[in-house]
Amino acid sequence: MALLYLVRHGETTWNREGRFQGQADAPLSDLGREQASRVAERLRATGLGVVVASDLSRARDTAQAVAEAAGVPLVLEPAFRELSFGLWQGSTRAEIEARFGDALRAYLSDPDHGRAEGGESFAEAMVRVRSAADRLLRERREERMAWVMHGGSIRALLCAYLDWPARRRGVYRLDNAGVSLLEVRPAEGFVSLHYLNDTHHLGGPRERPGRSPGGDAF
Q1: CATH number of the domain to which 133 belongs
Q2: Active-site positions?
Q3: Is the residue at 35 inside a domain?
Q4: How far apart are CA 55 and CA 63, in angstroms?
Q5: DSSP string, 155-172
Q6: pTM above the 0.90 mark?
Q7: What are phi and psi of 205, to 5 degrees?
Q8: Which of 20, 67, 163, 183 has the maximum number of C-beta atoms within 10 A of its C-beta?
Q9: Average per-residue pLDDT in the chain?
Q10: How confident is the model at residue 187 (pLDDT cuts 50, 70, 90)?
Q11: In percent, how much of the chain has pLDDT > 90?
């Protein structure tokens, strides 16, 4: 049995500007570094055995704070990177709609085939992230792990493990430095979502209407 704390990285400068990041390496903002400290404190006493993170700096730096607080190793996993958005990376949604409107609509409506030019589909990301997760669950003996990832890669993992329709991947929020807890028992084929997008450790209003302030790919 494994308990997986799925952590979205802290806010970046591009989150603040509403830009699609994909696999470009935007750094944490000042707020993002504060969020990393808060989520590290949140997870300090959960009994983690290891922290696994995407190797992009926004996830790696968030994960480093968590690993140091918990006193456990940090392992980098490139397969946990955000979806690749190809030519869209660095652009706002309005800019993408203006230049690549048909491709954006296809991406949002057709997770199997829709993609940015030079990028990947959501279905491809599901296979990539699920494959890495399955491998880690076979190789790692720790029962409690923090996996620090991205909005899109967390959604891909949740859809893959919980058999959620990929077309509905955008109906729930994943805030920067939010935590979701997934229980997985590979031998039994059992998966349970204990909670989704816990942000109480970040302070501020508990209910914030609308999209995640940091934005994500959906």
Answers
A1: 3.40.50.1240
A2: 9, 82
A3: yes
A4: 10
A5: HHHHHHHHT--GGGTTSS
A6: yes
A7: -60, 140
A8: 20
A9: 93
A10: confident
A11: 88
